[in-house]
Write a structure and sequence with these properties.
Elements (H helix, E strand, L loop, with lengths): L25 H4 L30 H14 L1 H34 L1 H4 L2 E3 L2 E2 H48 L6 H5 L1
Organism: Streptomyces bathyalis
Protein name: DUF485 domain-containing protein
Keywords: Membrane, Transmembrane, Transmembrane helix
């Protein structure tokens, strides 16, 4: 398995020139993203030089879309998404239930929340601190789950996507998403 990350090795265009953008894209990289007005734009936010809808090269937008569609439909990508959902959904439901229980208890049973635990430290303070502790615990559990169950497969998908994108930048654009799988 590769351990380096392809997204940090090359600029988005696939060029190995890290110092300056390719000459064909120099004019478009200075413009803001499509739909975002430039500073000093007149009424309506238009200056007349907004970023064009098409990408830099002919067919590169279609090629990149075909690559990402093929990756999205791949079994490896679906596996990463399943693993993500299997962790996030129950943990989110559990945490929201715990948080809402704290709020409802604080509202509906103030005498319970005011009961002292130790000195002036009461049940409400203990539950509030437990909210913070559970947030940190869930953050740790999420990072651990991602590292052990998803990161390796996601990195392989990144490499595959990067390799496919580079291949299509020099090869003709496929006509269908099925052709990208061949």
């Amino acid at each position: 398995m590769r351990t380096d990350d392809p997204w940090y090795d090359a600029v988005a265009s696939g060029s190995d020139d890290h110092d300056a953008p390719p000459a064909a894209t120099a004019a478009t990289t200075a413009l803001p993203p499509r739909g975002v007005p430039r500073p000093g734009a007149g009424e309506g936010g238009r200056t007349g030089d907004e970023r064009p809808v098409e990408s830099v090269g002919p067919g590169t937008s279609d090629a990149h879309a075909a690559v990402y569609l093929a990756v999205q439909r791949s079994e490896a990508f679906q596996q990463v998404r399943r693993r993500y959902r299997r962790f996030v959904t129950p943990v989110s439901v559990a945490f929201l239930t715990w948080y809402l229980a704290y709020l409802v208890t604080a509202t509906a049973a103030p005498e319970l929340m005011a009961r002292p635990v130790a000195g002036v430290f009461n049940v409400a303070m203990a539950a509030g601190l437990a909210q913070f502790a559970s947030t940190f615990l869930l953050t740790w559990a999420y990072a651990r789950h991602a590292r052990l169950r998803r990161d390796e497969l996601a990195l392989e998908l990144r490499w595959e996507t990067q390799d496919m994108t580079r291949a299509y930048s020099v090869a003709p654009t496929p006509r269908t998403a099925l052709e990208t799988m061949r």
